[in-house]
């Protein structure tokens, strides 16, 4: 459906620009809600044999111009930006360079021009002229979407390059020179380039963080088309019955009818069956991961006796070497789940300072030093309470999933524990149970007991059952929770039918905010069972795992590698309590 709606809106935009129409804001209330209107331009819009140095646009009210750098685009780009200023009800464009012969220029103003009373912008106004005998009339239309989320990308630069530079290879031009034509995407991710001359072009999209109109920033995202594009006519020569006026009217009628009844439209249906459109391009935007060099992003002492190292990528092969004399068991280490953050818990309380060398293979990231002695500054509030007694952190899920392990953690490694004094109450019964310490840093505790469904539990820790490496012990602690039941959940069985060219797929279950909840890897076709799903609505996402590494991979422009394809299930899955569902998913990628 998005593709169909996209084609419709893109075509509307082109017709409006083609007719040089001026958008008006919808009426509402007594205040001025109308956009400024061009009443005259000198030279007139769509002038041929253009040879002036000044363009004047006259409006029906006083206007202002702002955000020229980000809103105004000239295609083909000029060597230097023209001066754009206002004078009463006019906007003046001063051109101070020689223009190319027989070339059609287009000045797209975006939302730069506004009335001075309410700030209503004139949107999508285009001033077009040619230094030759004719106005080029070809167009390129398309959309830019995020390669991983498939969400539209608003306000990114779209660029067309032609092979007209003898010193720079065609593929390398986006790195060094400005494009032949450029525009920005709309809020819905659509773009339209009009008044193009015939030829074959390379088509790109760029986040352009530094507004240079070149791919020269490592933080920029890019999208590109594998093949060359050829601009096309908006209305084919054989469509004589469709005048500009009737085409616009038909499109507006189609929009009203389609948006009112869009529930009946399925993906792939065309909203414009009678409009002869071709070559609607989809660009998938991504950030290259070509710079795969491991880096240490941060090293700090987060609190007394705890050091933290944060790395750019998973870093289990990183080596941290003490440069000061340490005891054999001077610390305990602990990685986070993604293996990009490492914590050191200092076990030697007599150490005053520590110096460490952080390296991988022969590359030394940094040498860091800290003072481990505390300055004796009085602590306050929660910080003081944390240091005076050992406190447990545990799950806040309510009710607690009966099929999970009930776990607790302390801020520091545990030095000793007498769990013979620990008491578990199940319902109204006191039962024999145990706790165990686990984890690399020995600061996690787990209840060793199979939980029952729908039961109230209480864990009772008398004073000083657990002591950490700082010598702190727990106060008398009582923790209560209730378990849920199997009937509180639903289950889903996915029957995967792989109709894509990829042998390996990654299937993801996401919540409504697209947070990853479950993931399965499947080769070809098969079934996936997800049990213990909370009632609610879910999204399904599939990734074509081209290289079989079990994760989504971005693209690389110079290597001509597109990001791995992604597709979402067209329906939202709804899970209910005590229900079992089955879904067939025929997976195809664009």
Write the layout of secondary structure elements.
Layout: H1 2-18, E1 38-42, E2 54-59, E3 63-65, H2 68-71, E4 73-75, E5 83-87, E6 90-94, E7 104-108, E8 113-115, E9 126-130, E10 138-146, E11 157-162, H3 173-176, E12 181-184, E13 190-196, E14 201-206, E15 222-224, H4 244-260, E16 280-285, E17 296-303, E18 306-311, E19 319-322, E20 331-335, E21 341-346, E22 353-360, E23 363-371, H5 381-388, E24 393-394, E25 407-409, E26 414-417, E27 423-426, E28 429-431, E29 434-438, E30 444-448, E31 456-461, E32 466-468, E33 477-482, E34 490-498, E35 504-510, E36 516-523, E37 526-533, E38 536-544, E39 566-568, E40 573-575, E41 580-587
Helix pairs in contact: 1-4
Account of the 3D structure:
With 590 residues, this protein is mostly beta strands. It has 5 helices and 41 strands. Strands 35, 36, 38, 39 and 40 form a 5-stranded antiparallel sheet that branches. Helix 1 (2-18) packs antiparallel against helix 4. Residues 14-28, 235-277 and 376-386 have low confidence and may be disordered.
How many β strands by DSSP? Answer: 41
Mean pLDDT figure:
84
Q: What is the rounded distance between the termini?
A: 14 Å
Strand content: 35-45%
């Amino acid at each position: 459906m998005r593709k169909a709606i996209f084609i419709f809106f893109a075509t509307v935009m082109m017709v409006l620009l083609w007719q040089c129409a001026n958008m008006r804001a919808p009426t509402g209330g007594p205040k001025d809600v109308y956009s400024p209107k061009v009443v005259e331009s000198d030279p007139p819009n769509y002038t041929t044999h253009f040879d002036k140095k000044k363009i004047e646009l006259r409006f029906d009210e006083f206007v202002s111009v702002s955000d020229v750098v980000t809103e105004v685009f000239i295609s083909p780009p000029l060597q230097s930006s023209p001066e754009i200023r206002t004078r009463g009800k006019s906007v003046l464009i001063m051109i101070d360079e020689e223009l190319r012969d027989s070339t059609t220029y287009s000045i797209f103003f975006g939302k730069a021009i506004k009335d001075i009373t309410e700030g209503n912008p004139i949107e999508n106004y285009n001033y077009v002229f040619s230094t030759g005998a004719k106005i080029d009339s070809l167009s390129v239309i398309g959309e830019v979407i995020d390669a991983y989320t498939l969400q539209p990308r608003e306000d990114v630069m779209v660029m067309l390059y032609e092979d007209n530079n003898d010193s720079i290879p065609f593929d390398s031009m986006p790195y060094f020179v400005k494009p032949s034509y450029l525009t920005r995407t709309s809020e819905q991710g659509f773009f339209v380039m009009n008044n193009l001359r015939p030829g074959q072009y390379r088509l790109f999209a760029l986040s352009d963080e530094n507004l240079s109109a070149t791919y020269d920033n490592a933080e920029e995202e890019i999208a590109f088309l594998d093949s060359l594009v050829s601009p096309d006519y908006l209305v084919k020569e054989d469509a004589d019955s469709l005048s500009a006026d009737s085409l616009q009217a038909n499109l507006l009628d189609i929009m009203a009818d389609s948006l009112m009844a869009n529930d009946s439209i399925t993906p792939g249906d065309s909203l414009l069956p009678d409009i002869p459109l071709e070559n609607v391009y989809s660009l998938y935007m991504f950030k290259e991961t070509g710079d795969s060099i491991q880096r240490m992003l941060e090293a700090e002492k987060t609190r007394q006796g705890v050091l933290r190292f944060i790395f750019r990528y998973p870093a289990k092969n990183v080596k941290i070497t003490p440069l000061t004399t340490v005891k054999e068991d001077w610390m305990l280490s602990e990685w986070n789940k993604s293996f990009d953050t490492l914590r050191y818990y200092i076990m030697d309380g007599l150490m005053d300072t520590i110096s460490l060398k952080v390296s991988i293979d022969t590359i030394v990231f940094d040498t860091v030093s800290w003072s481990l002695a505390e300055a004796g500054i009085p602590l306050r509030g929660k910080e003081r309470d944390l240091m005076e007694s050992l406190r447990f952190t545990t799950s806040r899920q309510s009710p607690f999933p009966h099929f999970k392990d009930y776990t607790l953690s302390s801020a520091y490694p545990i030095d000793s524990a007498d769990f013979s004094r620990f008491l578990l109450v199940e319902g109204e019964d006191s039962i024999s149970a145990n706790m165990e310490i686990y984890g690399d840093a020995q600061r996690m505790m787990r209840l060793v007991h199979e939980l029952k469904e729908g039961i109230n539990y209480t864990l009772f820790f008398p004073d000083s059952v657990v002591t950490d490496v700082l010598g702190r012990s727990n106060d008398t602690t009582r923790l209560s929770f209730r378990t849920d039941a199997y009937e509180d959940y639903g289950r889903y069985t996915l029957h995967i039918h792989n109709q894509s060219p990829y042998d390996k797929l990654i299937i993801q279950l996401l919540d409504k905010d697209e947070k990853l909840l479950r993931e399965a890897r499947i080769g070809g076709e098969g079934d996936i069972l997800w049990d213990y799903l909370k009632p609610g609505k879910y999204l399904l996402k599939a990734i074509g795992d081209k290289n079989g590494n079990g994760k989504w991979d971005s693209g690389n422009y110079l290597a001509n590698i597109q990001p791995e394809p992604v597709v979402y299930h067209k329906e939202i899955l709804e899970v209910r309590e005590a229900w079992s569902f089955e879904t067939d998913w025929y997976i195809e990628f664009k």
